[in-house]
Design goal:
There is one protein chain. This protein is about 30% helix and about 25% strand. It is of the alpha/beta class and about 350 residues long. The protein folds into three domains: about 80 residues, Aspartate Aminotransferase, domain 1; about 180 residues, Rossmann fold, CATH 3.40.50; about 70 residues, no CATH class. A six-stranded mixed β-sheet has the order 11-13-12-14-15-16. A five-stranded antiparallel β-sheet has the order 1-2-3-4-5. A five-stranded antiparallel β-sheet has the order 6-7-8-9-10, covered by helices on one side. Strand 1 and strand 2 form a beta hairpin. The radius of gyration is 25 Å and the shape is elongated. It starts with a helix and ends with a strand.
């Protein structure tokens, strides 16, 4: 059978609440599996006009009541409940005031007054441009994996973190992940993507805020995913008209992989302007081979100390994608920079070759 628009909408909203989305047809009605339950059996009947009822026979009344619903209703009731779900959950969470978590957030220089607890993990609100809560991400501090988890139904695609609002005409510090976004940094507005692969909410924020801030500082992680995300965001920022002279990149000092490390170890961080020596932004000049370079793709020469090193033909076979690349000093910086932009990665220049 062909479902009505209202039936489709009810099913999608049930999925946002945790339903596994198993659907079967029953005449002109359909049945979909229950939210907030492991039961995959379709126990909720949805009629063509958007009316629905829970026929599971289990004690689900308290769960529906938490959403402001009975065990039955209409599409409009469900829409209202879904919209208010995460603000309600967030308001019901405890502040991170117990000793274990409070010691952790203070040791990591986090804005602890804005962090809550969710089932023993730190909890951070995922918000939209207007700071409406549209999801929650949790972070374990006990060393177990997965370290970060989004609460089911959170809108990571369109969401972001906003750790601090310092007002207009201040620097905008653009971070990766919750702990960097909530790291205590004075005098900046801090926003962050959920992860290096989820940039949608952050791009929306940048597009709507491009004329608001005096500077834009990209402070993503010092790893392959962070570099790729930085390049993507940098390209996007330039494409929407943010002037190069307003853009800065955080410098990672030795042993620090992210903004939180920099602030914990150094109590500050350094940044360089994008429009100064821009050809060196993704290139690091070194005098000797580093451990990271040993597994890199070497371009156009065989280093005498590494006769079995990968040669330039692998660069072509790989489509020029992925990894770190090593260039001889004889290569022109403009050429290297162009390759790094095209391949969304970074490189070393080995001095003396």
């Amino acid at each position: 059978m062909k479902m009505t628009d209202k039936q489709n909408q009810v099913i999608e909203l049930m999925k946002k609440l945790g339903s596994k989305g198993h659907v079967i047809a029953r005449g002109d009605s359909v049945k979909v599996s229950l939210p907030f339950a492991e039961d995959a059996n379709p126990n909720i009947t949805v009629w063509p006009n958007g009316a629905w009822r829970d026929f599971s026979g289990t004690d689900t009344a308290p769960e529906w009541e938490k959403l402001g619903l009975f065990r039955h209703g209409y599409l409009e009731d469900l829409q209202h409940a879904v919209t208010n779900r995460f603000p309600r959950i967030w308001n019901e969470l405890y502040d991170a005031f117990d000793k274990e978590h409070l010691d952790y957030v203070k040791r990591r220089n986090l804005r602890w007054k804005n962090i809550k607890l969710f089932w023993g993990s730190l909890a951070f609100p995922i918000v939209d441009f207007d700071e409406n809560i549209i999801g929650i991400q949790t972070r374990r501090i006990d060393g177990q994996e997965p370290k970060n988890m989004m609460v089911h139904g959170s809108d990571g695609k369109n969401g972001m973190f906003i750790g601090n609002r310092a007002g207009a005409n201040t620097p905008l510090l653009i971070c990766e992940g919750a702990t960097d976004t909530y790291t205590e940094v004075f005098g900046v507005t801090q926003v962050g993507c959920i992860s290096s692969s989820m940039l949608g909410g952050l791009k929306t924020f940048l597009n709507r805020s491009r004329d608001v801030y005096s500077e834009f500082i990209l402070a993503l992680d010092e790893d392959a995913a962070g570099r790729t995300a930085q390049n993507e965001l940098l390209s996007f920022m330039l494409s929407i008209g943010i002037p190069r002279e307003k853009i800065f990149l955080m410098v990672h000092t030795e042993g620090n992989k992210d903004l939180n490390d920099e602030m914990c170890h150094n109590k500050s961080f350094k940044s360089i302007p994008l429009n100064v020596k821009s050809e060196d932004i993704f290139v690091r000049v070194v005098d000797e081979v580093t451990p990271e370079m040993e597994s890199a793709v070497w371009i156009d020469f065989w280093p005498p100390d590494f006769p079995k090193m990968k040669h330039s033909h692998l660069f072509q076979e790989n489509g020029g994608k992925g990894g770190i690349f090593v260039f001889p000093e004889s290569y022109g910086r403009a050429t290297i920079n162009k390759l790094m932009w095209l391949n969304r990665t970074s490189a070393y220049i080995l001095r003396g070759f």
